[in-house]
Amino acid sequence: MRLLVTGGRTGYLGRHVVATAAREHDVIGVGSHDADLRDRDAVEALVGHHRPDAIIHTAYVQSDWDVTATGAAHVATAAARHGARLVLVSSDVVFSGADGLYDESAPPDPITAYGAAKAAAETVALAVCPDVVVARTSLILGDGTSQHERLVHALASGADGALFDDEQRCPVHVGDLAAALVELAGNHLQGVLHIGGAQAMSRFELGRLIARRDRLDPASLRATSRAAAGVAGPIDVRLDSSRAARVLSTRLRGAGEFL
């Protein structure tokens, strides 16, 4: 199978997807130097040149609607035009957190600009691409180099800051997620699939696990709430990934296991 991975050159998840897929497939990892996702013609030319069987779209810029939403729409349109399967990576932040536990039937109700951009990307991809799976996931970490792990090291070393103890997410190991995405690229599942980790926890609980694994002092980490920090965002967005456990051979471990 010939795979095109957006964000595959420099993106954290994208690089892991490329490395995982390269074990069995012909993989092209691309980045912003290969095509500006905001440029529809550039995306069309990129997909037309490589003619992939499937595209795994991991690229985004959290603060940039044009990259995250419009760029994903360009990728979906190009995938449809060239008959490529699309695996669109989305996020649990398409939900407000009002309902707590979310399965695939839950309608997006984002309360942040980034969540709205991801929800818009999902809507377009599902509308225009005949062969698409939207893979919603959560906090991604596990190899020691993620932003979450680097933040814990900085905080344990005395940097100013704290970790939310009121935000419930389902952290997933980057290797597990990469393997699941490659598996999805090669099967026939369509629609929305939740692929979060098997265990819900707060960022503070997650930080303490990282600290213990890396022989840091968990007591050096401080806790705060989103309200106290004045940071808007969903509080309780636990993804129900039970369907993924049934349909995928890739096992999505909980953070308590992989850390």
Task: Write the SSE topology.
Blueprint: E1 2-6, H1 12-21, E2 26-30, H2 40-50, E3 54-57, H3 65-81, E4 85-91, E5 100-102, H4 113-128, E6 132-137, E7 140-141, H5 147-156, E8 163-164, E9 172-173, H6 174-185, E10 191-194, H7 203-213, E11 223-224, H8 226-229, E12 237-239, H9 242-247, H10 255-258
Parallel strand pairs: 1-2, 1-3, 3-4, 4-6, 5-12, 6-10, 7-9, 8-11
Task: Give a short overview.
The protein is of the alpha/beta class and 259 residues long. It contains ten helices and twelve strands. Helix 2 crosses helix 3 (65-81), helix 3 runs parallel beside helix 4 (113-128) and helix 5 (147-156) crosses helix 7 (203-213).
Give a verbal description of the structure:
- With 259 residues, this protein is α/β, with parallel strands linked by helices.
- It has one domain (2-141, 171-198, 240-254): 3-Layer(aba) Sandwich (Rossmann fold).
- Helix content is 39%, strand content 17%.
- The chain has helices spanning 12-21, 40-50, 65-81, 113-128, 147-156, 174-185, 203-213, 226-229, 242-247, 255-258, and strands spanning 2-6, 26-30, 54-57, 85-91, 100-102, 132-137, 140-141, 163-164, 172-173, 191-194, 223-224, 237-239.
- Strands 2-1-3-4-6-10 form a six-stranded parallel beta sheet, sandwiched between helices.
- Helix 1 links the parallel strand 1 and strand 2.
